[in-house]
Amino acid sequence: MLLKSEIEDVFHAQQLALKKDLLTSRNYLVERTFKGKQVEVISGIRRSGKSTLMRMIMAHYAPNVVCFNFEDSRIFGFDVTDFKRLDDIIGDGHPVYFFDEIQNVEIYRDWE
Fold it and tell me: pTM of the entire structure?
């Protein structure tokens, strides 16, 4: 479990970095629409551009969204109990969240 202030520092740093990100639009995004409230997953092999594609989608379809990258070493140890703090930090007015490298989030399984 992380402190709320640690998560908040990382969140604001990541949002600032995203605003500086300049990407070239691709025709694929014009053809693809994202509707509904389901989870969309971008999958593929390592280093194939999944994160870049996600940032393009963010810029093209959802100007009022936020992104959080779980590969950031400053939030090592982020687990499912930290999502409430992250949601409080993000606040209202963001209908869509984009999570990059979410498989790094520690989950607890009580299967034994």
Answer: 0.77
